[in-house]
Design brief:
4-stranded antiparallel beta sheet, 10 strands, 3-stranded mixed beta sheet, alpha+beta, single chain, 17 helices
Amino acid sequence: MAQTAQSVQSAMPDPAMLQGAFEPMHNELRVQKLTRPSLSYWQDAWIRLKANKRAILSLYIIIGLLVFTVLGPQVWRVNPAEQDLLQISSAPGADRSAILVAPYAPWALPEVPPEAGTATDAPAPAPPALANAGLTLVGQATTQSVRLTWQIMPGAADYMVYRNIVEPKGQGPYGLPLGPTGAADITRFEDMLDLRPGVSHYSVVPLDAKGGQLPGAARLRVDVVNSITLQEAADRKLLEGGKVPALGSRIKFALHPMGTDYLGRDMLARLMQGAQVSLFIGIVAPLLFVLFGVIYGSTAGFIGGRVDQVMMRFADFVVALPFLLFMILFKIAFGIGPGESGIIPLIVAMVILLWPGTARLVRGQILQVREEAYVNAARLLGARTGYLVMRHMIPNTMGVILVTLTFAIPSAIFTEAFLSFIGMGVAAPTASWGSMSNDGIKSMLTHPHELFFPALLISITVLAFNLLGDGLRDALDAKLRSRE
């Protein structure tokens, strides 16, 4: 044993040698001090919200919509109810000019050939249209009138004239019937019915004595040119500097950046007016019934017991009430007649009948939060009920409240659109995005811009509020903040 200890001691290096081989370090230690500023709950939530690019972009879109709604009519001062009959259903970027034509003059009858045996100085000229085979256009086709002539068709007792915006195939359908000529020898027709610039396809179908269609319909493709008379241009103040242009000159119409609707009303002005109505209903009504639902649900959840059960059974009773029936009753109670906009009854119906969903969600969150340790600690320190609700419970349920609100806003917009569709909401001439979409559906195949713009604004608004609500939910969630 002693020998082993002696061998170990001999194997260890000399301390003097170690002191010479290793020198002590005299470098100063740099201590970094990590500090974080003291932030309030809402300051921290704003920082977290700014980190969410989608939510911030949605917030900018919503601010832009509010600016478009409030300040837009101050910049674009066009009456949304004013009709421009020269530009009906005009698409954005369409030609907004017309040629200057002479005032309308009745179509003179062709000269009747003299009877046989009557002396004349010169042979009677044949009508120009009868000199050509088939259907012929006489003069220029304008929005003032389109004049057609054709040859007498064998076996025809009468002729029916049709007009279509698409080329008919086979034996029809030929399109809009413009009327019969009245006799077999009347081989001309003048169309003056709601003419619009563009391509029109005319068909002349021979009829037998009983009104049945005969084969051999004549067809003609006509390019209708937009036209205006000098008097109409002067009445609409379209003459530049009071000058009188020559016939055939181009006259510029009023500018409509987003086109016009089926009555010639400016789409941009109506979209601004519709934004005022739709966003007013879509924001004010949800704010009111969500606020009431928050108060009702938090009260029921915090008190609990039998009071909670009675309050929630009443909420179940309100859910079972038919919304459309009460909307009709409220319209009658407010004295809203047929053809009048029922905006106030619509908001009242939403506030009275749509709060139970929010109340249920808030009640469930309050039942969970009131059992937390920090709430019990606040009770022991003497905190009052109002302080507990406003300081601890409502902030911890803010994410659910905001998400509910963001879903309630597009739901309110869709509700307004549905009621306007069935005639219970916004009525003409007052515009809303829902009523404009309803009008645009009727002509979406031929004039899609009348449906596209209001539907686009509805979609953008719904998407922006949903993305902002998701961002606010993440920013205000206290559990997510405690994990970072």
